[in-house]
Folate receptor gamma-like
Amino acid sequence: MRVLPVLILLLPWCIMGQQPATDGKTEEQLLNSCLDGMHHKQVPGPEGSLYQQCTPWKDRACCRGNVTEKMHQDQLFPYNFQWHHCGQLSPACERHFMQDMCFYECSPNLGPWLVKIQMKIRNERFVNVPLCASDCNQWWQACKDDMTCSGNWGKGWNWTSGVNECPRGNQCKTFKKYFGDATNFCQKIWDGSFTVVADTEPCMTQWFDGLNPNNAVARKRAKEIVQASTSELSATVSYVLLGVGVFLARLW
Ligand SMILES: *[C@@H]1O[C@H](CO)[C@@H](O)[C@H](O)[C@H]1NC(C)=O
Ligand SMILES: *[C@@H]1O[C@H](CO)[C@@H](O)[C@H](O)[C@H]1NC(C)=O
């Protein structure tokens, strides 16, 4: 009887094949996740009131009201990140960064794009979230003539003083000089958190009233992820069964 050892040998392969890219999350779990971060809730839910620019997410949010209020009152809260590192940003540009921060803290739609990382302020980040080109263009138009000293705000800062200071040798220049165009700006500003897609594709917006239009975008992506991992699993099972079948056939 040499079938048993072979089956035991195949077992780890079988189990490994069942570990999909989703970490085994179902569609509903992907759609009910909050980023694992310093101030995020564990799962999204209604908040009685969110503050000013974060208000659109109040029906279903990953942020708490007190966090959104403090964010608007103290620009360095909660991560000591200084937007105004080359003098004050214009009010229009600052509004876009505040909206982006509300999106980061509050959006309940990021589950399908979360990946694990190790940082003091969070254990997950999102990558390649599809941002609508029109959203990106407006953000860019508001900021392109403002000043910065980095073409990637996600890394490279000098944090010695506790607040981000310009990387050594980097001069203050316009966003236009550092980023060139709208697409490059939206994709690089947070180190690949966003990918810019045409408005005709499923894409996320940071500005909305009423029903959250990003729900449908997240649902579509969650379905795709679960379907891909299911077909990967059934392919693995087929291979294993085929292997066992061939082995048994040779025994006879
Ligand atoms: C916000 O309120 C929650 C409890 O509802 C509390 O745990 C948290 O520390 C508060 N955060 C801030 C920044 O005040
Ligand atoms: C970081 O900033 C401090 C001042 O806060 C400065 O003394 C130090 O030289 C800087 N380090 C680098 C690598 O730029």
Confidence is low (pLDDT under 50) at residues 14-21.
